[in-house]
Automatic annotation (TrEMBL):
A UniProt-annotated Pfam family: EF-hand_7
SUPFAM superfamilies: EF-hand, Metallo-dependent phosphatases
PANTHER family: SERINE/THREONINE-PROTEIN PHOSPHATASE 5-RELATED (PTHR45668), SERINE_THREONINE-PROTEIN PHOSPHATASE RDGC (PTHR45668:SF3)
Entry keyword annotation includes Hydrolase: yes
Protein name: Serine/threonine-protein phosphatase with EF-hands
Record's keyword annotation contains S-adenosyl-L-methionine: no
Amino acid sequence: MFSFTEGCGCVSFRGGRRARSLGDDSSSCRSSEIEQEVPKKIGKRMLNGDCTMKALAPFLKFWKKDDVSMTKAERTMKAAILIQQWYRRYLARMEVRRRYTWTIFQSIEYAGEQDQVKLYNFFNALLSHMRETSGRPSSERTSRTASVMEQIFSEESDEGGGVDETAPPKNCREPDIEFPLQRKDIDLLIEAFRKKKHRLHPKLVAQILKEASQMLKRLPNINVATTSISSQITICGDLHGKLDDLLVIFHKNGLPSPENPYIFNGDFVDRGKKGLEVLLLLLACMLTFPGGVYLNRGNHEDLIMNTRYGFIREVHQKYRHNAERLLKLIENVYRWLPLGTIINNRVFVVHGGISDSTDLDMLRSMERDKYASLLRPPLNEGAAPGAEGIDKVEWKQVFDILWSDPQSTGGCVANALRGAGTYFGPDVTTSFLNKNKLSFIIRSHECKPGGYEILHDGNVITIFSASNYYELGSNKGAYLKLCGNALDRQFVQYTAAVSRTRRLTFRQRVGLVESSAMRELHSHIMTARRTLEATFRSMDLDQSGFISISDWCYAMEETTHLGLPWRMLKDKLVRTDPDTRRVRYMDTFDLLANKIGRKSDAQTVVETLYKNKRSLEAIFKILDKDNSGFITLEEFSEACQLLGKYMPNPMTQEQLVDICRLMDINKDGLVDLNEFLESFRLAEKNLHEDEHILAEMKAS
């Protein structure tokens, strides 16, 4: 035990005191214990937050002293405490910024998925009234798959299409890969993908997809994995086209093999730029190491989701002349991916989660290949006219395990944030585990800052393996190793592109992620501009251009439904009058912030529809009931009335007449296909022109 002595910075120990002459100055005591102990140990502990104020009470009697009368040790202690207080405030501010940035990214991501589900509810309502365009009998599926297998793939060239930034240089020799695949072929694939030296010939890509489909067909709906041979198994979560993360996992944990098995828990593609490489590498590993790789289906193993989130665009960029043929093969792979995996009869690994109605026996016995897309379910073949054409009980079973998320509260409710699946509580988890004699659940589907999260008293584990998911430095990736018969858990975290993130300070990383989040938020706000502006003006009774902060926050949430802390974000979106404390609401749409930085990848519903011409053509054919090649007012009105429940605002007969007349460009009383497609293009063009004019008027 030690205490400060009078007059100097020396320390008094129980066994005696180190004395100093009155003539000594403070600098002559550099070898004293206080110089050794306090600045080096206590000061360091203070900065790390290890010392409590109670423990430091004996040292704080000097706090009210004048700086001149303080000894050197006292000044050191005061400086350490001040630095600690400042650092804690700084960390708190950074944590607040990180949290609301994370909330922005996650809310916008889930809102996009919700829009996608709503959009295809619209499609399903149309397709359910035209049997021949939807689900097919299993025999027809088989014959169609056989025809795909026999397709001929042409050479790729640089003619046509835009520039493919991921394409290898010309005159590069392709990797020499032979079937059946062996370990050396995996090394060649990794080398080719890592160094971008080669683009695989479309025939080779097709061969990998065909062989993988044949192997997947032989697997059950729910895989059975064991650690009896390997004594360990590794579970990886969402990769989302992040090839760097997959290579980091293989580098740290080794390539798959029967002695080092892996489970990849869905969402291999979309969002990232290397989704095709990730998918091909995983399928090649499965073919090379039977029993060493288990693949589960995720909610993004779905061509409809791929349309919105980038994978289809990626395939078209890399294989312009063979994209459609390859996408049919990829769809066949999706059909046959197992829905989950059970390890040692104790651990259920599934992409999303469960619900209170999840039935493993039903999941094991269904025909999974008929669900080419969960967003466009097949119709029952023998359903009577006017009867329900979709087996909703079976469909919901698959939907719930691929789209659900855990919640901290009890019960099971619809997942309104995503628009599909459920939120399931700890009681639902416990009931499911007891019923099926399982120990815990491993799932993915949600990005986590540290790459993993443990919920429901350890019964639910979330694993997410795509680092830098939202932006550089936004999150770590992780994988989970289960070791031994006891299945002991070992989490491994990592970050791809370490060389780039190391050059950034903590503040720079938070700022980079925050800027990206604000750009995404601004883009989302602009898609709802008309509704939002009308709401603001209805609140501005005196037309002053200002409304209260509460009204602004209410309008933002009621229009966007993002669930964000709008009061906290207002200083980044609008200016506030210092006298009246009212916000200038038109600042919400300031385009200056969106002109800086990268262009948003988000697409409006109109853009999605117009870029998917085939879907529009299918809608046109459905509306054209008599197959005359023209849509009459009666046909259009009947279809819109049928779909009224999917429209945010039901339309009157007069409004329907006006819409049909607007689409009738040549005014002949009928709408043909070209007029139908052109109407969507003009609507989008006019929307952008209106926004541009408003921006110019505001600037002037």
